[in-house]
Specification:
By secondary structure, the protein is α/β, with parallel strands linked by helices. Helix content is 50%, strand content 13%.
Length: 553
């Protein structure tokens, strides 16, 4: 029985109590069930009686006393006892707890998936690095967190679309083009240009593809370098992200918004809402009406668009594609965008609390020998995603970036992340996955199977370490749902580390396969079911992080 199953049992008990008139109120939409810290307090605890006390007009303990016999009467529940001010401590029957191993094995890769966010259509935009250079190490963080969050949202039942916003219009592209032209001609980098070996490589590639480009007049040559150079740079960005295990459903070009009149349409829509005004020769959006610290320019005095106007058009485009919620991931240097973007959504008539989410992530540093690594071999002063992968590998990089809350600035220690020891978190979890794989492999070689469903006796899994492991496995669906709902992928990594420790303790305390000369029995088979369940959950969790689940190390 999983916590979700138990929550259903409790919900049914609350419904029965209300229907019978013993308490008043409504069944809570979500009932919290938590693992008890001490086994003497039962397997699980819930505070549902404390939540119902006010509407019932009764002390929480009295409500708990009404619910206790109703919950205890359910199949799989051994007893339900009232504790403290109104907690309900629940102890499961041994077979009900052990049966979870069978449920997990039968669910396989689907174990952990829920319908918590079912029906939500969501657009998730992340990375969106300008095509003027390789993905930097800060972008690498979003490449992992965004990708993992998309996996979690999908596992929680949401219909999620991963999107990369390709900024191929604007001043930064002009600077990129001038830098490529200068490199191709052997001239110094423009004062406001981009430098690094990658600029020289791309410039040379453009010349190889278009041999006569440097003989063209300046405007025509610039046009060639703009088209070819940005295409080459973006192809490289896509390649780096794909090698890092990050994929997108849509690559959206900013230039398309300009070409098809998207910015004009957005301003017209905002004007219809009465939020646009003109002053000082410019066109403005009155975002201060919705909490922004100042109004924002849409069209400059010279008639050119601002970046903010493109942001407005892009948001409107996403909503017009049917996405109920727009989630945007931005680096710490974009924290000031939150107020204006929320105000912009309100100007379009949307509730920013339900239609728009902006997640801000902190910086990442790469550290070796206790000192920051600052220089990239290829990109000059900016460390790149490729630098990170070269230093520690894909698995270690993804895991390290996923296990930290995005609110915190992190230092990635090269020495630690390349170490094959238990103080390296990714090694610790991956090694935990190899142990059940090895047991199952050895069992197969010895001709020992876990038997059929009828051969499995869940009531035999009563050892303290078995109970601890079952409880940890039971928590996985709730962890996945919470990580998706709260947009906190690091919860999965922390869970896996705790599960790895729990499995190691079970492995050390409970002999799974018989010694030479001993005959496999029902307990052997039950522990093989539990071992298989452990392998599945560790593997499912690692795959949610986009990290490999090796069978041997």
């Amino acid at each position: 029985m999983t916590p979700a199953d138990l929550a259903t049992v409790i919900s049914d008990g609350v419904h029965t109590a209300i229907q019978s008139g013993r308490i008043s109120g409504e069944v809570p939409e979500e009932i919290r069930v938590e693992r008890s810290r001490h086994r003497s307090h039962g397997d699980y605890s819930t505070n549902v009686a404390m939540r119902l006390a006010k509407s019932a007009g009764l002390p929480a303990r009295t409500v708990a006393e009404v619910l206790a016999p109703l919950v205890a009467a359910a199949d799989g529940v051994a007893r339900a006892e009232v504790a403290g001010p109104g907690f309900l401590n629940i102890t499961l029957e041994g077979a009900a707890l052990g049966a979870l191993a069978r449920e997990i094995v039968l669910a396989g890769d689907a174990y952990g998936r829920t319908d918590r966010l079912g029906g939500l259509r969501l657009n998730l935009e992340f990375v969106s690095a300008n095509p003027t250079g390789p993905v930097h190490i800060g972008g690498a963080r979003w490449a992992v967190v965004g990708d993992v969050l998309a996996r979690l949202l999908d596992a929680a039942g949401a219909d999620v679309s991963r999107e990369y916003y390709f900024n191929d219009a604007g001043v930064q592209i002009d600077r990129f083009v001038r830098s490529l032209l200068a490199a191709a001609r052997g001239e110094p980098v423009p004062e406001d240009g981009y430098s690094g070996a990658y600029i020289e490589e791309i410039a040379a590639a453009v010349v190889r593809r278009r041999p006569g480009v440097l003989d063209l007049p300046e405007p025509e040559a610039a046009a060639v370098f703009r088209t070819e150079g940005t295409a080459l740079m973006f192809a490289e960005i896509k390649s780096s992200l794909a090698a890092f295990g990050t994929r997108f459903d849509t690559y959206f070009n900013e230039k398309d918004l300009h070409d098809r009149g998207g910015l004009d349409a957005a301003v017209a829509r905002l004007r219809e809402g009465g939020h646009v005004f003109e002053a000082d020769g410019a066109v403005w959006l009155r975002t201060t009406d919705f909490g922004d610290d100042k109004d924002r320019v849409l069209v400059k005095g010279d008639g050119s668009w601002t970046y903010f106007t493109a942001d407005c058009a892009y948001y409107l485009d996403k909503r017009s594609r049917g996405f109920e919620r727009v989630v945007i991931m931005l680096g710490a240097d974009h924290a000031g965008y939150v107020g204006r973007m929320r105000a912009m959504a309100a100007c379009f008539g949307d509730d920013p609390d339900t239609r728009l989410e902006i997640l801000i992530g902190q910086l990442v540093n790469l550290v070796k020998d206790g000192k920051p690594v600052r220089m990239s071999k290829r990109a000059g002063t900016v460390l790149t995603l490729d630098d990170l992968v070269e230093a520690v590998g894909v698995d270690a990089a993804r895991y390290a970036l996923a296990r930290a809350s995005v609110d915190a600035m992190i230092d990635l220690d090269i020495d630690l992340l390349t170490r094959q020891s238990n103080d390296n978190p990714v090694y610790y979890v991956q090694y935990a996955h190899t142990r059940p794989c090895a047991v199952l492999r050895k069992a197969e070689q010895a001709g020992i199977g876990k038997g059929t469903l009828q051969d499995f006796d869940p009531s035999l899994l009563t050892h303290e370490r078995e109970v601890d492991l079952l409880a940890a496995l039971a928590a996985f669906p709730q962890v996945v749902a919470a990580a998706a709902t709260l947009r906190e992928p690091h919860r999965v990594a922390h869970y896996l580390e705790a599960l790895a420790g729990t499995y190691h303790r079970f492995y050390d305390a409970c002999r799974i396969l018989p010694r030479d000369g001993e005959t496999p029995d029902d307990r052997t088979r039950a522990r093989l079911w539990l071992t298989e369940a452990s392998r599945l959950v560790l593997g499912n969790g690692l795959r949610l992080l986009g990290v490999s689940a090796p069978e041997r190390m």
